[in-house]
Design goal:
- The chain has a two-stranded antiparallel ribbon with strand order 1-2.
- It has one domain.
- The model has no long low-confidence stretch (mean pLDDT 80).
- Helix content is 15%, strand content 13%.
- The chain has one helix and two strands, in the order E-E-H.
- The N and C termini lie far apart (37 Å).
- The chain is an alpha+beta fold.
């Protein structure tokens, strides 16, 4: 994916042990990927924060 996107913290960014590399597992076809790359957007429309505790962090004392 494009470097402007925070892939490392995305829930769709998973490690493949066979390839020994990280990949985006979002189901995209060539048209979706082309629109994503050519877009002026600085955020990925498929981004899902992988931080499970983000929702409850504000409750910490």
């Amino acid at each position: 994916m494009v470097n402007d996107f925070p892939c490392e913290s995305c829930n769709n960014y998973v490690y493949d042990e066979e390839e020994e590399a990280y990949f985006c597992e979002q189901d995209m076809d060539e048209d979706d990927y082309g629109r994503l790359i050519s877009s002026e957007r600085k955020t990925c429309p498929f981004y899902r924060n992988g931080d499970e505790y983000k929702v409850v962090r504000h409750q910490a004392f």
